[in-house]
Design a protein that fits this description.
Helices cover 56% and strands 8% of the residues. By secondary structure, it is α/β, with parallel strands linked by helices. The two termini are 27 Å apart.
């Protein structure tokens, strides 16, 4: 997400390094590069222009503060203006009547996103209910029923052969009354294109359902078309917010930066993967920090607290401290890491760490695949071999590799990696810090110290990059 934009912005800010004062000429040059970077990322022309002009107006002639480069100072100005463009975070309205109407074109991921929202609501302690009102797309109702079954969420399905969305909407309210209290999510029909028939139908359904939220599911991969669609939906039915999907792919993502400014409606959630749990609450300030390669430590700590069992992490940390680390512990550690990377792989995890976006390319696209191969090798070992890696001789290596379906070379690399990890723990205690990071610093010196350890474990030495005055890493209060 935004990796290309992040790189281009970094290059633009580099041009200002070493300057004693921010002059109009060097700011103008940098702003031209920034404007081009924004347009190439598919940011709306007017939004890009307004953002660049606002940054330039504040930057020209500004005194460079001590110990801060002009580049850093303009990063601070750019960050603040970007947050303004993205707007304030707006929470989902789940007050009575607790009804959410999902709208959007076909292919945006409306049905899957409805299920994702139900999953998110369950985690918040709410009781979600799914109601299928898409009578046109083949298997749309069945898809919602299957997803509801996976989540153990009740699903309303219209009578077989029903073709009138108004009748289906009225029947859904009768079913809803029978279900009692809960947050109702109505999955409505889409079209290939935005037409009068779709909007007229949606208006009728809205009048019957009387929702307190109308969320438009918009496909980020369609770029500025998504912004145009959002404008038309808003003019016709009055949407209350947006969910941007497919932000985990190769989409340039500029539509996300333009959406609030152009439509006047807030982005409330982001779809960052195909899995049911891959829905994130949209935080404008955190997104601005990700774009500027400042990481998103708060989201990482929240994910760690949600996904990782604190007792398990403490037990693993104790074994690391006592130098009793074996392949069982390594497997457990890898599974903890997999939980943290479920929303975008190792690249997604590194993208949440300040100054680590370049590491995503360094680890390569096969990092997650390699982790699976390593897990297969460990699972192919006997319990004794996992506890005592030193007994794994040539013959045992061949047997393990045959069982895992991997070459002997990978087993040799794994044993070397294991020995290096043990050495790190013995000499530096880096792996202990990594365990603290995984549980958000529980039992240690706080979450940020743990994350510093995680950086150290990844080769960053545990050091955080400096930020311009007035800015701080999220979570460092």
């Amino acid at each position: 997400m935004f990796s290309s934009l992040t790189e281009k912005l970094e290059l633009a800010f580099k041009k200002l390094r070493g300057q004693a004062r921010i002059s109009e000429s060097n700011v103008t040059d940098a702003m031209q590069d920034i404007r081009m970077a924004l347009l190439e990322a598919d940011v709306d022309f007017k939004v890009a222009k307004e953002l660049v002009e606002a940054v330039k107006a504040q930057s020209v002639g500004a005194e460079v503060l001590r110990s801060v480069s002009p580049g850093q100072q303009i990063v601070k100005i750019f960050h603040d203006e970007l947050v303004k463009i993205l707007g304030e975070a707006v929470a989902l309205n789940v007050d009575p009547p607790q009804r959410i109407l999902m709208a959007g074109l076909n292919g945006a991921g409306k049905t899957t996103t409805s299920a994702k929202l139900a999953s998110w609501l369950k985690k918040q302690g709410r009781r979600p209910l799914l109601l299928a009102l898409d009578l046109y797309r083949p298997a749309a109702i069945k898809q919602l029923q299957v997803l509801g079954q996976q989540l153990n969420v009740p699903v309303f399905a219209p009578a077989e052969g029903e073709t009138d969305p108004v009748k289906a909407a009225k029947a859904s309210l009768i079913w809803l009354k029978e279900q009692g209290s809960g947050v109702a999510i109505f999955d409505t029909a889409g079209r290939q294109d935005l037409d009068e028939e779709l909007l007229a139908e949606l208006k009728k359904v809205r009048e019957i359902v009387q929702p307190n939220e109308i969320l438009l599911v918009a496909d980020a991969a369609t770029g500025q078309q998504a912004v145009s669609v959002a404008q038309k939906f808003n003019d016709a039915v009055g949407i209350t917010g947006l969910i941007m999907t497919k932000l985990d792919g190769d989409a340039r993502g500029g539509a996300l930066l333009s959406m609030r400014q152009v439509t006047g409606r807030p982005v409330k959630f982001l779809g960052v993967g195909e899995k049911i749990e891959q829905l994130e609450v949209f935080h404008p300030d955190r997104m601005a920090q990700r774009i500027l390669d400042m990481g998103d430590v708060v989201s990482l700590v929240e994910k760690a607290a949600e996904e990782i069992d604190e007792k398990e992490a403490m037990k693993l940390a104790e074994r690391m401290q006592s130098n009793k680390f074996d392949f069982n512990d390594m497997l457990q550690q890898m599974r903890m890491m997999k939980k943290l990377t479920s929303g975008g792989g190792m690249g997604g995890l590194l993208g949440m760490l300040p100054g680590m976006s370049k590491m995503k390319d360094a680890i390569g696209p096969d990092a997650d695949k390699k982790m699976k191969h390593t897990e297969a090798l460990i699972l192919s070992m006997t319990p004794k071999e996992r506890q005592r890696p030193e007994i794994i001789n040539g013959q045992r290596r061949k047997r393990i590799c045959n069982g895992a379906g991997r070459p002997v070379m990978e087993m040799n690399q794994l044993l070397k990696q294991f020995e290096m990890m043990k050495k790190m723990m013995k000499n530096q205690g880096a792996m202990m810090q990594m365990a603290n990071a995984m549980m958000g610093g529980a039992g240690g010196g706080g979450g940020m110290g743990g994350l510093g350890g995680l950086l150290g474990g990844l080769g960053g030495g545990g050091k955080m990059p400096k930020l311009p005055p007035g800015m701080k890493f999220p979570g460092k209060f």
